[in-house]
Design goal:
This protein is 38% helix and 10% strand. The chain has 372 residues and is α/β, with parallel strands linked by helices. Strands 1-2-3-4 form a four-stranded parallel beta sheet. It has a four-stranded parallel beta sheet with strand order 6-5-7-8, with helices on both faces.
């Protein structure tokens, strides 16, 4: 496999779990896993005529503030002036965000092209272990899982708390670090964001292991998606896990989230949710829209919720099948190889516990190790 014109960020040797996998890196993989910033600079110096595919989970996110193994946004634009760069990104509106940042800096966007692939779809279905279960007669309206807390997750909970909706939820609130006291002191919510809430005795592990009786005992999964700098539409496991579990879901994300899902072929649950309220350019309006949808559903009886689940069941099945069969015909075979062999250093190419188990191996995850 010729990886000479494939560059990945972050490089494996810059990744937090490098020590777990460094002994498993075969010689033929090193050129696409190690010292990727140097590789890209050397390709620019060579004035290669072949397009260079730059793969990175955050190539669309943090374009002004993030560095890629020491390369800044301006460095990427300068390199793209010398050679043809094609970004392979999980950000649906990557070009729009890069155009906007270039205008801010008074620069020309020199990136040749962008390929959007929600690669999380490829990895999450490897975790699929027959967890699809459409449930009714639930005691709670929604489930709201929070392990790594952020300002967006706090704001979403704030809007739910403001309408007294958390009483209708199974939820977790797990982070314990200096971030929460800072938010508590500056934001001063009426609810206690410092209080840790666990759903079972495997805090954190609860995000990925079965059985999850509290997950099955809720009609809807409410999620704060990975929401980075600007309005970059990133799709992660937070969007696709509910689809594999047969759970209707509302996600708080950048504007364009639901339009992107429709373009990919997923069916929206209009019978259950008013998407006009949650697909809005204004961030506050989107938060209000999620709370309004949940508030309206909270007023329905279990009988009415069960009927809604019956109505949307064909769409839930369609979306699950689309996740399982989704492919990437537009990427070069070298990138497909990286996907298939779990060699792509993006968020979902591994679960931290089991990274060393399946790094570099083309197989479905052992169902005795990890489950959705």
């Amino acid at each position: 496999m010729d990886f000479s014109h494939i560059v990945q960020f972050p490089a494996a040797n810059e990744h937090e779990s490098y020590d777990l996998v460094k002994d498993k890196i075969k010689p033929e993989w090193k050129s696409v896993l190690i010292n990727q910033a140097d590789k890209l600079k050397k390709l620019a110096q060579s004035k290669t005529n072949k397009p260079v595919y730059v793969v990175g989970g955050e190539m669309g996110s943090y374009p002004l503030h993030q560095t890629w193994d020491g390369l800044y946004f301006e460095d990427m634009i300068e390199i793209a002036e010398q050679i043809d760069i094609i970004l392979i990104t999980s950000s649906a509106n990557c070009k729009h965000e890069w155009d906007q940042k270039c205008r801010t800096l008074g620069m020309k966007n020199t990136i040749k092209d962008y390929i959007f692939i929600p690669w999380c779809l490829h990895f999450i279905k490897k975790f699929y272990t027959h967890g699809f279960k459409i449930t009714k007669d639930c005691t709670k309206l929604f489930v709201y899982l929070n392990r790594r807390l952020s300002s967006n997750k706090i704001m979403l909970r704030h809007f739910l708390e403001r309408h007294n909706l958390m009483q209708h939820a199974h939820y977790s609130w797990l982070d314990e670090d200096n971030f929460l006291p800072f938010m508590q002191d500056t934001f001063k919510p009426k609810w206690d964001l410092m209080q840790k809430v666990e759903l079972d005795n495997d805090a954190g592990g609860e995000m990925s292991t079965l059985p999850q009786p509290w997950y099955d005992d809720a009609y809807v999964d409410v999620v704060s998606e990975t929401y980075n700098d600007g309005e970059t539409v990133d799709l992660s496991e937070k969007t696709f896990k509910p689809m594999l579990r047969g759970k209707p879901s509302l996600q708080f994300n950048a504007y364009g989230h639901y339009h992107t899902l429709e373009k990919l072929g997923f069916k929206l649950l209009h019978e259950m949710f008013d998407y006009d309220k949650v697909e809005h350019p204004d961030r506050t309006k989107r938060l209000e829209g999620i709370a309004d949808n949940i508030k309206r559903l909270s007023q329905l009886s279990s009988y009415d919720m069960n009927k809604l689940i019956d109505v949307v069941t064909p769409k839930l099945i369609h979306n699950k099948e689309l996740v399982l069969n989704f492919g990437y015909p537009q990427v070069p075979k070298e990138v497909q190889y990286l996907l298939d062999y779990n060699l792509m250093p993006v968020d979902m190419y591994s679960n931290w516990k089991w990274r060393e188990y399946y790094f570099g191996q083309k197989k479905t995850i052992d169902t005795t190790l990890i489950k959705l």
